[in-house]
Design goal:
heterodimer; A: 393 residues; 15 helices; globular; B: alpha+beta; 5 strands
Chain lengths: 393, 165
């Protein structure tokens, strides 16, 4: 047991069928009358955002302002611009509909507004902020992977240096998250697979990094079980509501887990790959996980072995000799990635993801400066990061 | 109260030794030198160790790590949440990674700057503390490029000659 640990999850979860229809009621209870709706152009185009608008309108709630130009890798400038628009539009609350980029942008906007700041860069840090002005904040995730709806961190790109910055504060957590399986029903197979694998990485790193604690491990291990049981089916058959729902819940649980015990080297290197080589976050996670697990193995024999029952089931885990369980856990993760590759072409190597070896030095430099590396069970310098990148190429 | 005062006194002394070790290791350890050489000119750190407790303000300027009385807007400010935590950190009972994992400090600035400091502190601890301590507080014990006694010797001489003032 940890000598000391902290755990927080203040997000109210609305999960399942008809969750969306309850959104307006929640906004009313939070005192929100003029919400600003944040989303991206794709979700606006394919009608996902409209589903949310319709559900709100049916209960008498209309956004005071809508912003749908949030890019895939949002930036500090986007956050500052939206905050300015919020102020000039007379909004009083935020509703974010989207994946990780939209939700993290909205978290950044909430921070800027609640701290009454002009520039998010001026308030960056770790657990450094006081509560500030209350801004009601509801999120509707449209992928099952980031878990951002329940985390106390916002990851936002700094265009000035290409680095993905982390803003850690309990005050970025939304008030309410709407986990409605209809929101992920239209997700293409490859996006379903990669974002689902991202949730797997959150859960595994949360259970094995230095900050892991009994509470986060309980969430993380259950998330791993749900992902193993449902990710392939959700990828193969996107209309399977049961699998979609299970994946949405798994993603949220993995988010709660890593929000309270952090992530590790997979994320540190993945953030750097995103910043330098523009590899989509979830794709980087899929490629890196087994290689980082092998790198960490000497420090994680027990913790990886403990994950095996959740990855392959109790019977199969018990049939594996105790000394081989940690390695078997890595093989189970690799096997899942390979099956997803067969199902939808999810990349398994950095070469397939279009990364050039010329980027490795810069990626390593960024990775060792990423906060996620501090709680990785094994330290890594730039040379060791390059070794991992070479193994994943 | 006596215990708290002793803890603050100890932390204050160790802070000065840590600064001195960084100054000396710049000339003795290639990894420390590389970290500082990559540091932006004027980069500054503030470290508060608790309520009414010792503070450390350092700035990298003109190839030297200056120990200043106060820096108004440091690039990176770390605030340990209690004197007890600071005492544990500066007496080899808890490493920086463990402190982070235990939410022992808050930070204003960019996380990348904390990572840079963490690497430097890990190297300093590798020299100042014996292995039976570092194996409990560091995720990996750094290879030492010079004998720690040489580092201690130079720090001792440095204090005698007022090199760190």
């Amino acid at each position: 047991m940890n000598k000391y640990f902290e755990f927080q999850n203040a997000v109210k979860l609305l999960c399942g069928d008809s969750a969306l229809e309850r959104l307006a009621n929640e906004l009313e209870h939070l005192g929100a009358r003029a919400p600003m709706l944040l989303s991206d152009a794709v979700l606006a185009k394919i009608g996902t955002m409209q589903q949310v608008v319709d559900a709100m309108a049916a209960e008498g709630c209309t956004p005071a302002c809508t912003f749908t130009d949030i890019p895939v890798d949002s930036s500090l400038k986007v956050v500052n611009d939206i905050a300015a628009l919020y102020r000039s539009s007379g909004c009083d609350s935020l509703v974010a509909v989207g994946g990780g980029s939209v939700i993290d942008t909205a978290k950044g906007v909430r921070l800027v507004l609640s701290q009454e700041a002009e520039d998010i860069l001026a308030i960056g840090g770790v657990e450094n902020l006081v509560r500030g002005q209350y801004i009601p904040f509801v999120v509707v995730p449209t992928t099952a992977g980031t878990g951002s709806e329940c985390t106390g961190v916002a990851v936002i790109r700094n265009d000035a240096n290409g680095v993905k910055m982390e803003f850690l504060s309990p005050f970025v957590e939304p008030d309410v998250a709407v986990i409605d399986p209809r929101m992920t029903a239209g997700l293409p197979p490859k996006a379903t697979a990669s974002t689902g694998f991202d949730a797997m990485v959150h859960a595994i790193e949360a259970c094995t990094c230095l900050q892991a604690n009994p509470m986060s491990t309980a969430y993380g291990t259950t998330a791993i079980k749900l992902i193993c049981e449902n990710l392939e089916e959700a990828t193969r058959n996107g209309s399977n509501k049961k699998a979609r729902y299970a994946m949405a819940v798994a993603s949220t649980m993995a988010g709660i887990a890593f929000s309270n015990s952090m992530v590790g080297a997979v994320h540190a290197i993945g953030h750097a790959l995103g910043g330098v080589s523009h590899v989509p976050h979830a794709v980087a996670m899929t490629i890196l996980l087994p290689h980082v697990m092998r790198y960490n193995l000497e420090r994680c024999t027990e913790s990886y072995a403990a994950l095996l029952p959740w990855l392959v089931g109790m019977d199969a885990a018990m049939a594996t000799p105790a000394e081989k369980r940690a390695a078997a856990a890595i093989e189970a993760v690799e096997g899942l990635a390979r099956r997803l590759n067969t199902l939808c072409g999810l990349p398994l190597t950095l070469r397939e993801a279009g990364v050039s070896r010329d980027d490795f030095a810069k990626v390593a430099e960024f990775a060792v400066n990423d906060g996620a590396l501090i709680v990785n069970p094994r330290a890594a310098d730039e040379a060791q990061v390059i070794e991992i990148l070479n193994a994943a190429y | 109260m006596m215990k708290l005062a002793l803890q603050k006194l100890t932390v204050g002394i160790v802070l000065r030794v840590v600064h001195a070790a960084l100054v000396e290791l710049y000339g003795l350890d290639s990894r420390v030198r590389e970290e500082f050489d990559r540091m932006p000119e004027g980069m500054s750190y503030a470290l508060q160790t608790g309520y009414a407790a010792p503070e450390l303000y350092v700035q990298w300027k003109d190839g030297r790590l200056l120990n200043l009385k106060k820096i108004e807007n440091p690039t990176c400010a770390l605030r340990l949440k209690s004197t007890g935590i600071s005492f544990r950190m500066f007496t080899g009972q808890m490493g920086l990674a463990q402190a982070y994992a235990q939410h022992a400090f808050s930070m204003q600035g960019e996380i990348a700057d904390v990572m840079r400091l963490a690497r430097l502190v890990n190297l300093v601890e590798g020299y100042l503390f014996p292995k039976f301590i570092t194996k409990h507080i560091l995720t990996d014990i750094p290879a030492l490029q010079v004998n720690p006694l040489r580092v201690y010797g130079r720090i001792f001489c440095g204090f005698l000659t007022g090199r760190y003032n």
